[in-house]
Amino acid sequence: MQTTTREIVRRRFTVHDYHRMAEAGILHEDDRVELIEGEIVEMAAIGSRHFTCVNKLNHLLVRSVGDGEAIVSVQNPVRLDERNEPQPDLSLIRARDYRQSLPGPEDVLLLIEVSDTTLAYDRNVKLPLYAKAGIPEVWIANLANETIEHHTKPSGDGYHLVRHSGKGDTIKPEAFPGLELPVNTVFS
């Protein structure tokens, strides 16, 4: 008797499929999921250190950016392409009307991931997607060692410039060179 093997085929979802699941009630607004490489990925729970860091960064950015120059978007989706719609912790996006479409790579000035238990995932899965999409600048706030990784110069194979800033340093978004954020205030 001859047996045949069959390769398992995964069904990858598009952004359209993903949104239709929400409209049909399969996914709910309060579900902590994002679309990564066509797969619906459950996001990690938010702990108190993560919560505090996101809120501090939000406060600093809103206060510093000014009215009308950009929008600080907190834990909202960014559509990178047809198979990727992550929900970064913060994104600084161009000021425009988003009622007809979610922000895309061309709208993102700065994207921030706060990493407590998700550092490997943020670096190895999400960061390459952001680079491939052309997001000009990504910060990873590493809660474990209280540093900010500053990634710029994106290409299809990653970010070509990476700087690390710790306590005592300041960090400046490239889109707002006059804005300086003391790293101490992010982690204190």
Produce the secondary structure layout:
Layout: H1 15-23, E1 33-36, E2 39-42, H2 48-65, E3 70-74, E4 90-94, E5 108-115, H3 119-133, E6 137-142, E7 147-155, E8 158-165, E9 170-171, E10 181-182, H4 183-187
Parallel strand pairs: 5-6
Antiparallel strand pairs: 1-2, 3-4, 4-5, 6-7, 7-8, 9-10
Written overview of the protein:
The protein has 188 residues and is of the alpha+beta class. The protein has a single domain, classed as tt1808, chain A, CATH 3.90.1570.10. It has four helices and ten strands, in the order H-E-E-H-E-E-E-H-E-E-E-E-E-H. The chain has helices at 15-23, 48-65, 119-133, 183-187; strands spanning 33-36, 39-42, 70-74, 90-94, 108-115, 137-142, 147-155, 158-165, 170-171, 181-182. A six-stranded mixed beta sheet has the order 3-4-5-6-7-8. A two-stranded antiparallel sheet has the order 1-2. The protein has a two-stranded antiparallel sheet with strand order 9-10. It is globular, with a radius of gyration of 18 Å.
